[in-house]
């Protein structure tokens, strides 16, 4: 995407900005499209200011080298109170609204700490260079050496939020956290929600139980503060979540540690999170062909403005919409796609690959509902552990209802896959009639995610036919499972493969216990490990995504340059190596 600024001229301190700011960003509860009467609060003064700074930086520095990252500017910690900083900004010398590179650099240096300076490296106490019992099945010396390097990356990625953030929250968009955390890496310099699940899977393989538990403690603190787990621990992520995997994190930690205290203190937070996902904005009722009404859930961010961390792109993308309400609706769909974790993908487009047709809130997603059945079962399990039998029974019952709903609304008996369902509209408080032909028949890795959950992987005849379907889907490529079959230029599409998708499918296949499924799982894992290894040898780093069409190449596309580090990729490689090992005599090459 090229960043153009065609529809509005943003000048530094003229009224153009203020008017624009007012008309677009001030929204009332009675906005035309029905979104459950959801009021969207204005950004905090700090965020509004940092977005102005971001826009000026974009105009001053440009993006000719493709290195401009708008997120950097909303991450900058202040050195002085906002009023002082804003005053200095207003007074920057400018020529007809534009600030020189030199003046802006001087201002940035004098008034801000660096992005990420408020979240510092921390040596995890439970890290040892080679933990006892580490990946016992990895016999190949070079793979073992590499696995130990990947393991050592937890040191690079463990952070602590500075006390200054809690003391002066108005100086930081970073949110204070009670414990240490592990970040994905590069521009993702804060803790993220669904990434943390695979980070934790890796930490468990690395025997770093305290570091894993600390992440969960942080996410619970976000629920206590905001009512749900934020997309990430930043002030600009307070109005959307991400795929709900906190209960799955706690479950995995509990399996390794039998930490009943953790389960006890998590349960109230999980119940609160469950309410968030079942609130009006996320809930949809479907009347199926047999006359049964089902309740399922969708992504929907409480946001109808440009995402602050990417507002340059979002404004440019929205520039062809003429009305304020169309722009607001589009911004909501963009933020909701971010809530899905799949930002961005043809999965959410009514007319792929046309980005302006994003309609995330009109999709009932297979994977979200699979995660929620997992959450229901985990809550039932935790309730049982803590002796709360009635809560346990209640959640078992609702998981049964969701299973029926998933079978009725998503399952496609011809394709032997679960397909996302398109709503006519994204209206709330209305029962939608299930209609043939509204299932999205395009191939996505998410069509197989239910396999990851017990109600589905434990049904061996079902797994048998889904395995056949996966094998012939076209999604299995040289270096792993493709996200989709559409090469749209978006990062959650072909030819990218993502660690979490590989992991969920592999683990589901494996847990089915079916021989054929197990060998497919191992095949995918070997391809994935191989490409991660070859790319690491070539580039010296772990990447956030890989090109599954070409073994030994990392992925691209999307709205920012490819990132390295990388939390969930490291986690999945370690989890796969723990499960499958690597024999001494198996070559590793593409
Ligand atoms: C957006 O998030 C902020 C901070 O959590 C909250 O105060 C506000 O109510 C949220 N907006 C909506 C519409 O929920
Ligand atoms: C100042 O900026 C405006 C808007 O971009 C432009 O139309 C005008 O020509 C500029 N004036 C000068 C003197 O550069
Ligand atoms: C806006 O519309 C023009 C003309 O159809 C098109 O070329 C351009 O790509 C569109 N811009 C965006 C951001 O969609
Ligand atoms: C993309 O979709 C928008 C909104 O429906 C439409 O106005 C535009 O013409 C489409 N662009 C292309 C290139 O098809
Ligand atoms: C909960 O159920 C278990 C058996 O499933 C039983 O042993 C226990 O006494 C029950 N607890 C309560 C509080 O009813
Ligand atoms: C990890 O951190 C060490 C020490 O700071 C550094 O030398 C190394 O390059 C880092 N590795 C990666 C892959 O970022």
Automatic annotation (TrEMBL):
Top-tier EC class: hydrolase
Biological process annotations from GO: trehalose catabolic process
Catalyzed reactions per annotation: alpha,alpha-trehalose + H2O = alpha-D-glucose + beta-D-glucose
Gene Ontology terms, MF aspect: alpha,alpha-trehalase activity
EC number: 3.2.1.28
Signal peptide positions on this chain: 1-29
One Pfam assignment: Trehalase
Keywords, in A-Z order: Glycosidase, Hydrolase, Signal
Family that this chain belongs to: Belongs to the glycosyl hydrolase 37 family.
The name this protein goes by in its record: Trehalase
Organism: Clitoria ternatea (Butterfly pea)
């Amino acid at each position: 995407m090229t960043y153009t600024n065609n529809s509005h001229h943003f000048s530094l301190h003229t009224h153009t900005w203020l008017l624009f700011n007012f008309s677009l960003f001030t929204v009332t509860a009675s906005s035309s499209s029905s979104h459950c009467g959801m009021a969207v609060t204005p950004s905090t003064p700090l965020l509004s200011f940092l977005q102005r700074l971001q826009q000026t930086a974009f105009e001053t520095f440009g993006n000719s080298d493709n290195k401009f990252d708008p997120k950097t500017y909303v991450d900058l910690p202040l050195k002085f109170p906002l009023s002082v900083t804003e005053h200095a900004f207003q007074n920057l010398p400018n020529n007809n609204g534009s600030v020189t590179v030199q003046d802006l650099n001087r201002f940035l240096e004098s008034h801000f700490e660096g992005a990420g300076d408020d979240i510092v490296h921390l040596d995890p106490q439970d890290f040892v260079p080679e933990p006892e019992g580490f990946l016992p099945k990895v016999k190949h010396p070079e793979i073992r050496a590499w696995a130990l390097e990947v393991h050592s990356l937890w040191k690079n990625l463990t952070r602590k939020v500075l006390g200054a953030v809690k003391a002066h929250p108005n100086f930081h968009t970073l949110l204070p956290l009670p414990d240490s955390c592990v970040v994905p890496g590069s521009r993702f310099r804060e803790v993220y929600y669904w990434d943390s699940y695979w980070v934790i899977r890796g930490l468990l393989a690395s025997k770093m139980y305290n570091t894993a538990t600390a992440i969960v403690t942080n996410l619970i603190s976000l629920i206590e503060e905001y009512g749900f787990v934020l997309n990430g621990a930043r002030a600009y992520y307070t109005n959307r979540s991400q795929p709900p995997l906190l209960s799955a994190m706690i479950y995995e930690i509990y399996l390794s540690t039998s930490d009943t205290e953790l389960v006890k203190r998590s349960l109230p937070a999980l119940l609160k999170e469950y309410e968030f996902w079942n609130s009006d904005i996320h809930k949809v009722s479907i009347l199926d062909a047999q006359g049964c009404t089902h309740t399922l859930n969708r992504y929907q961010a409480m946001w109808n403005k440009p995402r602050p961390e990417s507002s340059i792109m979002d404004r440019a993308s929205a520039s062809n919409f003429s009305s304020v309400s169309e722009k607001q609706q589009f911004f909501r769909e963009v933020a909701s796609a971010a809530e899905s974790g799949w930002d961005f993908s043809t999965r959410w487009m009514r007319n792929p690959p046309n980005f302006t047709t994003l309609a995330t809130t009109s999709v009932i997603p297979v994977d979200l509902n699979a995660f929620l059945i997992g959450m229901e079962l985990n809550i039932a399990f935790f309730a049982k552990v803590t002796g709360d039998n009635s809560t346990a029974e209640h959640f078992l019952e609702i998981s049964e209802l969701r299973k029926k709903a998933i079978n009725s609304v998503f399952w496609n008996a011809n394709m032997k896959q679960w397909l996302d369902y398109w709503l006519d509209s994204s209206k709330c408080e209305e029962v939608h009639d299930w209609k043939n032909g509204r299932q999205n028949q395009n191939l996505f890795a998410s069509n197989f995610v239910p396999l990851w959950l017990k109600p589905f992987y434990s049904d061996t005849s079902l797994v048998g036919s889904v395995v056949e379907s996966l094998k012939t889907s076209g999604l299995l490529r040289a270096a792993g499972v493709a996200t989709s079959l559409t090469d749209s230029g978006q990062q959650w599409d072909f030819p990218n493969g993502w660690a979490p998708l590989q992991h969920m499918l592999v683990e589901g296949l494996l847990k089915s216990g079916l021989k054929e499924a197990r060998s497919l799982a191992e095949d995918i894992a070997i391809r994935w490990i191989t490409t991660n290894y070859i790319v690491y040898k070539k580039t010296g780093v772990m990447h956030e995504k890989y090109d599954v069409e070409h073994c030994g190449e990392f992925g691209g596309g999307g709205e920012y340059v490819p990132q390295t580090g990388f939390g969930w990729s490291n986690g999945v490689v370690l989890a796969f190596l723990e499960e499958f090992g690597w024999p001494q005599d198996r070559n590793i090459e593409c």
